[in-house]
Amino acid sequence: MTRLLASRLAQIAATLAILSFCAFALIALMPGDPIEVAIAGDPRLTSEDAQRLRALHGLDRPFHERYLAWAGGLVRGEFGYSRLFAQPVAALLGPALLSTLALAGSALLIALLLGVALGALAASRPRAAPGVDAIAVMGQAMPTFWLGILLIILFAVTLGWLPAGGAAEAGAGLTYLILPVATLAIAHLAAYARHSAASLEATLTEPWIRTARARGASEHVVLVRHAFPNAALPVLQIAALDAGALAGGALVTETVFARPGMGKLLYDAVMGNDTNLALVALLLVALVTMLATLGADLAQRLLDPRLRER
Amino acid sequence: MRLRLGLLLLGLLAVAAAAAPLVADALGHDPFAPDLLARFEPPSARHPLGTDDLGRDILTRLLYGARVSLAVGLAAALAAAFIGTAAGLVAAWRGGTADALVMRFADFMLALPALPLLVLLAAADPARIGLPGRGEAAGDVLRIVVILALFGWVGVARLARAAALATFSRDHVRAARALGASEGRILRRHVLPALLPPVAVATALAVAGAILAESTLSFLGLGISPPAPSWGNMLANAQELVFSAPWAAVWPGLAIMATVAACTLVADGLRRRGS
């Protein structure tokens, strides 16, 4: 277990190192270096000034020197400054990360519960199966941002029950969370419904289920006590993948609902040419994604004794 | 049943995309020309689906958008299928270092958060390295196809590798090898045909994924730039219009959903036929 954890953490560190290099190289391709932006913003800036500024910020140094200086700073915990928000990057990341974790975590939980419930419905009531299947296919085919817009039109514009976006100052945070969580949960629910239905259907044909029925166990007991624990594993596997995907996948939902999370921070940084913030945010999202996947893997190991042996 | 339904839907969409100029002519609309006196018109006989914020007919833009969205989705998925099949086949055939390299790279891609990376990649400007820049229609399509293929090949490669490994250990391949068939002949005649069913399923799913990803990037303003219509960029400003013209937000999303659902149905149908 310890060795597994150590090797997985080493993998994560290596992945982050490679990603940081590739992303840093890529940013060099993005339109406009910071000095060009400064020149566009201030017509009095002369070319000597630009040169001086480039030298001051080290932009005239070769690529590998710039990368090493930047990556060294990250390792020492110096995340630099965000031009777009005029704040230290470190101060922006904490609240954004918390907001995303709250959104993605509650969405994952709701998607899992509702998805498995739908799957159980399809598996135990064959007449409901086509309906659940249709819901799942449509749910997976819907673009998240469109679903978000439709929910805004229905609940914020037409009915006026919920706010169309933004985040609460304090206190009434829950009403701002409902629509984004619903959007993200519906988008992810379909996969759980399909997989838990398939997994339960397969489990219900096993001999021990027949034995339980022959023993006179009620359908409810058969489903909950006998079929469920065995059918849960493939579903948990999907959840393990999803836990990681959600951290980054919340980007669209956060943008649609103007929620100040990691995804929105990254998107704003990319659109506003704030390269440092964009890079640090990307690395943090990647780290959270991989840690979430790792955590889900470990949880799965705890639940499934067969995996623990290896 | 699923396969037929999916193919029927896709066929209808393809016909609609092909008929875009005919519909535009019949209605007498130019999907690119703004008409500021006819903004936000509700559906009518003249504008069956209403008009958008620049007074352009939504139906004709939807049909022209179908051309862009379907072309991008198909091209990206085919490129991903080609790269993925080649990578998976080489990994299974050569084994050893080649296999480790391909699979490590695939694991690397799978471990990363796809959407943030797509956003970052799509924001890079290819004009800096001498390619057509952002905002030019042909350049936009090429850029998005390349980026989506870069992410799409991984799934295909894993499936193709698994299927190829299984096939290499089958008796008919070993028999062919014992009879002295060349490696090229074994790959072409015996292994490649066995890869087709799983690759077809993966490709159908890749089309669905590519269309969703393209629409998302275009919605975020990083994909196909206006005035060229794509289903995603038609929704980009629909969000600001939820109060004034909510119907403008409905149709492009429905089109995306129908297309992606059709691709999923085709993939499901192919998988069931295979097993």
UniProtKB/TrEMBL annotation, chain A:
Its main location: membrane. It is a multi-pass membrane protein. Residues 97-295 form the ABC transmembrane type-1 domain. Keywords: Cell membrane, Membrane, Transmembrane, Transmembrane helix, Transport. Gene3D superfamilies: MetI-like. InterPro entries: BPD_transp_1_N (IPR045621), MetI-like (IPR000515), MetI-like_sf (IPR035906). The chain crosses the membrane at residues 12-30, 101-123, 144-162, 174-193, 235-257, 277-299. It holds the Pfam family BPD_transp_1_N. It is found in: Cell membrane. Belongs to the binding-protein-dependent transport system permease family. This is ABC transporter permease.
